[in-house]
Sequence to fold (174 residues):
Amino acid sequence: MKRRFYLTKHINIKNVSLRGILGWCLSVLVFLLPVLICLQIVLRSVFHASFFGMEEVVLFLGSWLFFLGIAYASDEGTHVVVTLLPSQIKFGRVVFKTDKVALFAGVCTILITIYALYLATNYWWSVCQDWLLSTPLQIPLVYLYASMVVGLGLSAISLVRNLVANVGNARGKE
Fold:
């Protein structure tokens, strides 16, 4: 049986897990976004009016939905996986088996995620220092770009935990 370690499995405060909080936030965002978009369409089409700044609110909520969704999928191990490498790679007489290829792919995924987190954090920090505001509603853009840092940070932690669990499982098979 495979052992899996999830980020949210170990962070449990009075029966409230981080995965549960992420799931609840995602559920609210998935419900709220279409409602706001339909409201805007009805206001424009039927009443020939619009809600000022609705596009900006949808953009902010969509960004949080996207990056929290990445974190949730990474934690569950249900993120999109593309296997470009064959199950066996041969270099002369040396043959690398599937477990080693999966380990290599997992490490590459973690490195790419950490690099994206580094870039997002630097950009977020520059926005914090300049305290940029959105044009229509004057909402600080710090809240928009924080979604990248939070989502990628939680994803990186989840990917590392899953990789450690997979390495433990591979060692248990030997």
Summary: Residues 98-130 form the longest helix (33 residues). The chain has five helices and four strands. The CA atoms of residues 130 and 142 lie 10 Å apart.
